[in-house]
Protein backbone atom coordinates (compact mmCIF):
# COMPACT_ATOMS: atom_id res chain seq x y z
CA UNK A 1 0.00 0.00 0.00
CA UNK A 2 2.93 2.30 0.68
CA UNK A 3 4.15 1.71 -2.87
CA UNK A 4 0.77 2.76 -4.30
CA UNK A 5 0.83 5.95 -2.22
CA UNK A 6 4.39 6.69 -3.35
CA UNK A 7 3.53 6.14 -7.02
CA UNK A 8 0.41 8.31 -6.78
CA UNK A 9 2.39 11.12 -5.12
CA UNK A 10 5.02 10.95 -7.88
CA UNK A 11 2.36 11.01 -10.63
CA UNK A 12 0.47 13.91 -9.06
CA UNK A 13 3.66 15.88 -8.51
CA UNK A 14 4.71 15.33 -12.11
CA UNK A 15 1.27 16.35 -13.34
CA UNK A 16 1.46 19.57 -11.33
CA UNK A 17 5.04 20.45 -12.30
CA UNK A 18 5.10 19.70 -16.04
CA UNK A 19 2.80 22.59 -17.09
CA UNK A 20 4.87 25.00 -15.00
CA UNK A 21 8.03 23.87 -16.74
CA UNK A 22 6.39 24.27 -20.13
CA UNK A 23 5.01 27.75 -19.48
CA UNK A 24 8.16 29.06 -17.83
CA UNK A 25 10.29 29.10 -20.97
CA UNK A 26 12.75 31.96 -21.16
CA UNK A 27 11.79 34.99 -23.20
CA UNK A 28 13.77 35.91 -26.28
CA UNK A 29 16.47 37.99 -24.67
CA UNK A 30 18.27 38.59 -27.97
CA UNK A 31 15.45 40.69 -29.39
CA UNK A 32 16.95 43.97 -28.11
CA UNK A 33 13.44 45.08 -27.15
CA UNK A 34 13.29 48.31 -25.23
CA UNK A 35 9.94 49.71 -24.19
CA UNK A 36 9.91 53.33 -25.25
CA UNK A 37 6.20 54.01 -24.90
CA UNK A 38 5.65 54.78 -28.57
CA UNK A 39 2.54 53.74 -30.48
CA UNK A 40 4.22 50.71 -32.09
CA UNK A 41 4.26 48.71 -28.86
CA UNK A 42 1.02 47.57 -27.31
CA UNK A 43 0.20 45.39 -24.35
CA UNK A 44 -0.11 42.22 -26.47
CA UNK A 45 3.36 42.71 -27.94
CA UNK A 46 4.89 43.16 -24.50
CA UNK A 47 2.93 40.18 -23.13
CA UNK A 48 4.15 37.98 -26.00
CA UNK A 49 7.76 38.97 -25.42
CA UNK A 50 7.71 38.23 -21.69
CA UNK A 51 5.49 35.15 -22.10
CA UNK A 52 2.22 36.17 -20.42
CA UNK A 53 -1.08 34.75 -21.66
CA UNK A 54 -3.49 37.33 -23.07
CA UNK A 55 -6.49 35.04 -23.44
CA UNK A 56 -9.99 36.00 -22.52
CA UNK A 57 -10.69 35.33 -18.81
CA UNK A 58 -13.58 33.07 -19.86
CA UNK A 59 -11.16 30.91 -21.86
CA UNK A 60 -8.80 30.72 -18.89
CA UNK A 61 -11.71 29.58 -16.68
CA UNK A 62 -12.63 26.90 -19.22
CA UNK A 63 -9.00 25.74 -19.35
CA UNK A 64 -8.89 25.50 -15.56
CA UNK A 65 -12.15 23.52 -15.53
CA UNK A 66 -10.85 21.06 -18.14
CA UNK A 67 -7.54 20.71 -16.27
CA UNK A 68 -9.43 19.93 -13.04
CA UNK A 69 -11.57 17.32 -14.81
CA UNK A 70 -8.47 15.75 -16.37
CA UNK A 71 -6.84 15.60 -12.94
CA UNK A 72 -9.93 13.96 -11.45
CA UNK A 73 -9.92 11.47 -14.33
CA UNK A 74 -6.31 10.61 -13.52
CA UNK A 75 -7.26 10.10 -9.86
CA UNK A 76 -10.15 7.80 -10.87
CA UNK A 77 -7.86 5.73 -13.10
CA UNK A 78 -5.31 5.43 -10.28
CA UNK A 79 -8.08 4.31 -7.91
CA UNK A 80 -9.22 1.70 -10.44
CA UNK A 81 -5.66 0.46 -10.94
CA UNK A 82 -5.08 0.22 -7.19
CA UNK A 83 -8.29 -1.81 -6.82
CA UNK A 84 -7.16 -4.17 -9.57
CA UNK A 85 -3.73 -4.46 -7.96
CA UNK A 86 -5.34 -5.20 -4.61
CA UNK A 87 -7.49 -7.93 -6.17
CA UNK A 88 -4.53 -9.49 -7.94
CA UNK A 89 -2.48 -9.56 -4.73
CA UNK A 90 -5.32 -10.73 -2.46
CA UNK A 91 -4.10 -14.35 -2.48
CA UNK A 92 -7.69 -15.58 -2.27
CA UNK A 93 -8.60 -13.66 0.88
CA UNK A 94 -12.34 -12.96 0.81
CA UNK A 95 -12.00 -9.70 2.75
CA UNK A 96 -9.34 -8.32 0.41
CA UNK A 97 -11.34 -9.33 -2.66
CA UNK A 98 -14.47 -7.59 -1.33
CA UNK A 99 -12.45 -4.47 -0.53
CA UNK A 100 -10.91 -4.57 -4.02
CA UNK A 101 -14.38 -4.90 -5.58
CA UNK A 102 -15.57 -1.83 -3.66
CA UNK A 103 -12.53 0.14 -4.82
CA UNK A 104 -13.07 -0.98 -8.43
CA UNK A 105 -16.73 0.05 -8.28
CA UNK A 106 -15.79 3.41 -6.80
CA UNK A 107 -13.21 3.95 -9.56
CA UNK A 108 -15.64 2.93 -12.30
CA UNK A 109 -18.38 5.19 -10.95
CA UNK A 110 -15.83 8.01 -10.63
CA UNK A 111 -14.78 7.60 -14.27
CA UNK A 112 -18.41 7.59 -15.41
CA UNK A 113 -19.21 10.73 -13.39
CA UNK A 114 -16.10 12.55 -14.63
CA UNK A 115 -16.74 11.65 -18.27
CA UNK A 116 -20.36 12.76 -17.88
CA UNK A 117 -19.25 16.05 -16.34
CA UNK A 118 -16.80 16.63 -19.19
CA UNK A 119 -19.51 15.88 -21.75
CA UNK A 120 -22.05 18.14 -20.09
CA UNK A 121 -19.50 20.95 -19.70
CA UNK A 122 -18.46 20.66 -23.35
CA UNK A 123 -22.10 20.70 -24.47
CA UNK A 124 -22.94 23.75 -22.35
CA UNK A 125 -19.86 25.69 -23.45
CA UNK A 126 -20.38 24.92 -27.15
CA UNK A 127 -24.08 25.78 -26.91
CA UNK A 128 -23.26 29.03 -25.18
CA UNK A 129 -20.65 29.90 -27.82
CA UNK A 130 -23.09 29.02 -30.63
CA UNK A 131 -25.83 31.13 -29.03
CA UNK A 132 -23.51 34.13 -28.76
CA UNK A 133 -22.35 33.79 -32.37
CA UNK A 134 -18.80 32.66 -31.61
CA UNK A 135 -17.50 29.63 -33.51
CA UNK A 136 -15.61 27.22 -31.24
Structural features, described:
This protein has about 140 residues and is mainly alpha-helical. It has two domains: about 1-55, no CATH class; about 55-135. Helix content is about 75%, strand content about 0%. The chain has four helices and no strands. It has helices at about 1-25, 45-50, 55-90, 95-130. α1 (about 1-25) runs antiparallel to α3 (about 55-90) and α3 (about 55-90) runs antiparallel to α4 (about 95-130). The longest helix is centred in the last third of the chain and has 38 residues, at about 95-130. The chain is elongated and about 65 Å long. The two termini are about 45 Å apart. Residues about 25-30 have low confidence and may be disordered.
Strand content: under 5%
The separation of the N and C termini measures 44 Å
Helical fraction equals over 70%
What's the helix count? 4
Number of strands: 0
Category by helix and strand content: mainly alpha
Largest sheet data: none
Give the integer mean of the pLDDT values.
Answer: 76
Task: Estimate nothing, just give the exact number of structural domains.
Answer: 2
Order of helices and strands: HHHH
- How large, in whole angstroms, is the Cα Rg? 23 Å
Sum up the overall morphology in one term.
elongated
Summarize this structure briefly:
By secondary structure, this protein is mainly alpha-helical.
Topology:
Blueprint: H1 2-23, H2 43-50, H3 57-88, H4 94-131
Helix pairs in contact: 1-3, 3-4
